[in-house]
Automatic annotation (TrEMBL):
Region span, Disordered: 1-20
Gene name, Swiss-Prot/TrEMBL: feoB_3
Job description of the protein: Probable transporter of a GTP-driven Fe(2+) uptake system.
Database matches in Pfam families: FeoB_C (PF07664), FeoB_N (PF02421), Gate (PF07670)
Subcellular location(s) per record: Cell inner membrane; Cell membrane
Descriptive protein name: Ferrous iron transport protein B
Gene3D superfamilies per UniProt: P-loop containing nucleotide triphosphate hydrolases
GO molecular function: ferrous iron transmembrane transporter activity; GTP binding; metal ion binding
């Protein structure tokens, strides 16, 4: 296709020996392929998900084309520049205040009407714009075509077709971006009534004002912050708006009038440039699948069945076999080799104990759960990339509304299955403060990947025949407690009505092998980094406190150590829950730093390898099935790790609110764990 490229002569860069690096803003609707293009151009590894809202904050990356360096800024996916949501505020503030050299607008070619609405707003800015029509391969596969030359002529900016997933057209696109100039086409042809109103508002502004057309639109829409910024009396704008509303009729409002005017222009562009394929308007594969997975009665059972399958594979024969291989390597190969090496070097006994019983037992042992964590994140990655997780949010909307939230809150909660820290950060997408705080308070109840080693250890020791089902029950319980807690908090603390929930359901796609591997690596890398830093430090600290008393004398009996004394102070509080031993108390304290440290701490305290038969036997002897289940419940629900808690403080914007959340979580953990212990004891008596 021929592409009209609009250029402008730029001044030569100063003779500093360095080539100027343009800053390019990457913008578009959610799920339009922005992050895929960003990764392809910058070589970054930002996660790409087939659901809206993957990018919450702007991200920067550097790249070059034919020796010309440039900086690419990936902005959050938005539908409009009207600053309502957090994503819209981040994007619009960057464009207005930081003035990038160019804007690269990514448009989903399979949904031009919705995507071009943002394009029309971008054209009001005094920044060069280049439009990339992405997913052109999907359009062509459906038998359709898009005349990008016609679009370019009508919009007055360069328009190029690309397929970001395949890298098709990307180099030509960036060449056009780097030489793009200001819009050269005819002015946007507004309806004459809108044109008169815009002209009246424009007269209130200085002619040299940057982004004048955009400011006019914001003033007409009644944005108070814009009125105050330009010292314009609201009465003046209200009079112009009232005249426009009267011109359109009694039932019209300014927002609807401006939106309809933009869509009239969009319709002209689509009519001139888009030719639908023969299958347009017919039922697609996505439609047929959605008839089942979003069915009124089948949707929730299907969701739980998918989750059950995931845990059956992760903690069933497949996951257990893989973890066994790692455990045997550590126990039968690594530990004897290190022990022999240290003995041959004549190292003192306490150094051997520190390295073998402390470091290898704590850090090496936790790695036995790495295969199961990889399997879990493989499943989650496939579900996200395929588009199913977006359906899960839609399906759970009804349940969440009972607790005063919407399906949009379920997105951070689902992310909590991976890690609580990014899940809490994802609450930025929620529009009102009450929704955000309520979601932050209940999201830690969703079981993160760091708790998997705890479940794996206790389920393997006390429930070996039903390990997968036991772990699955933890995830179900976390979800149930989150919903019940939300209902309670909504009736007692938060009283604002839930925001409306509108969410795009993306088409189903085959998961990308690269993207699936990327997500697995990112999650596993975080696990490995923790193992090499936090878990290592905790293991050394636990070993030291376990082998020395308050006088810093080496003790032969660990019950006389500093650690035992600390644990005995806390143990009586935990006794009603069935695990009132000092070892369990110390392990829970270590879990405040990182949840994986619970298992490594128990291994160090008992002096055996994680995953070994000896540790399973000790856990089986130290806990009953009832107390073991109660211990898992407490680990599921009590305060998240330090990193997550620091994020909660930041996102809540208040240490007071964060402490309230922590107290609520500890109280909930204690109550539910006590109930689980009593019910389990009763069940054991009856059975």
């Amino acid at each position: 296709m021929a592409v009209q490229v609009h250029t402008v002569k730029r001044p030569a860069p100063p003779a500093t020996g360095k080539m100027r690096s343009p800053r390019i803003a990457l913008i578009g609707n959610p799920n339009c392929g922005k992050t895929t293009l960003f990764n392809a151009l910058t070589g970054s590894n930002q996660y790409v998900g087939n659901w809206p809202g993957v990018t919450v904050e702007k991200k920067e990356g550097r790249a070059s084309l034919q020796g010309q360096p440039y900086t690419l800024v990936d902005l959050p996916g938005i539908y409009s520049l009207s600053p309502y949501t957090m994503e819209e505020i981040v994007a619009s503030d960057f464009l207005i205040k930081e003035r990038p050299d160019a804007v690269l607008d990514i448009v989903d070619g399979t949904n031009l009407s919705r995507n071009l609405y943002l394009t029309m707003q971008l054209l009001e800015l005094d920044i060069p714009v280049v439009v990339a029509v992405n997913m052109i391969d999907d359009v062509q596969a459906a038998g359709g075509s898009i005349d990008t030359a016609a679009m370019s002529q009508l919009l007055g900016v360069p328009v190029l077709p690309i397929a970001a997933r395949r890298g098709q057209g990307v180099e030509a696109l960036m060449a056009a971006v780097l030489r793009a100039g200001r819009r050269t086409g005819p002015p946007i042809d507004h309806d004459k009534r809108v044109r008169r109103a815009r002209s009246a508002v424009a007269q209130l502004l200085p002619p040299e004002l940057p982004h004048r057309a955009y400011v006019v639109s914001q003033l007409l829409a009644g944005r108070r912050e814009v009125l105050h910024a330009h010292h314009i009396a609201p009465r003046q704008i209200a009079e112009i708006g009232a005249q426009l509303e009267r011109a359109y009729g009694k039932k019209s409002d300014i927002e609807s009038i401006l939106a309809a005017d933009r869509y009239d222009q969009i319709d002209l562009v689509i009519a001139a440039a888009f030719t639908p394929g023969p299958r347009a308007g017919k039922e697609t594969v996505t439609d047929r699948i959605d008839r089942v997975v979003t069915h009124r009665y089948l949707a929730i059972p299907i969701f739980f069945a998918v989750m059950a399958l995931m845990f059956a594979v992760t903690f069933g024969p497949v996951g257990a076999t893989l973890s066994g291989l790692v455990e045997r390597f550590i126990t039968d190969v690594l530990t004897p080799a290190v022990t022999a090496l240290l003995a041959g070097a004549g190292t003192p006994a306490w150094v051997q104990g520190l390295l073998v019983d402390g470091v290898i037992t704590g850090v090496g042992g936790i790695l036995t759960f790495l295969p199961q964590i990889m399997l879990l994140f493989l499943f989650l990655s496939v579900l996200e990339s395929s588009g199913y997780m977006a359906r899960a949010s839609f399906v759970m909307d009804g349940l969440l509304r009972k607790m005063g939230l919407t399906g949009k809150s379920f997105i951070p909660m689902l992310m909590g299955f991976g890690c609580t820290t990014p899940a809490v950060m994802a609450t930025k997408t929620l529009e009102n403060e009450e929704d955000r705080r309520l979601t932050i308070m209940v999201t830690p109840f969703m079981s993160c990947g760091a708790k998997l080693p705890i479940y794996g250890l206790f389920a393997g020791a006390l429930f070996p025949a039903h390990a997968g089902l036991t772990v699955f029950s933890m995830y179900l319980l976390g979800l149930a407690v989150a919903i019940c807690s939300g209902i309670l908090l909504k009736k007692t603390v938060f009283h604002q009505n839930a925001s409306p929930f509108i969410m795009e359901l993306p088409p189903y796609r085959l998961p990308s092998l690269r993207n699936t591997g990327l997500l697995m690596w990112e999650k596993c890398r975080g696990f490995l980094v923790k193992a090499g830093t936090i878990i290592l430090s905790m293991s050394v600290l636990i070993w030291f406190l376990q082998h020395f008393d308050l006088s810093l004398r080496l003790v032969g009996d660990t019950s006389a150590s500093m650690l035992a004394g600390l644990g005995r102070c806390i143990a009586p509080v935990l006794a009603p829950l069935g695990f009132g031993t000092w070892q369990a108390a110390v392990a829970l304290l270590a879990g405040l730093v990182a949840k994986e440290a619970v298992v490594s701490t128990l291994a160090v305290l008992y002096g055996v390898q994680v995953g070994s038969t000896a540790l399973l036997q000790i856990i089986g002897a130290s806990f009953t099935p009832a107390s073991a289940y109660a211990f898992m419940v407490f680990c599921l629900l009590y305060v998240p790790c330090m990193a997550a808690f620091a994020t909660i403080i930041k996102e809540m914007g208040s240490l007071k609110w964060a402490l309230k959340a922590a107290l609520f979580q500890v109280g909930t953990a204690y109550l539910v764990s006590y109930m689980a212990y009593q019910f389990a004891r009763l069940a054991m008596i009856l059975c």
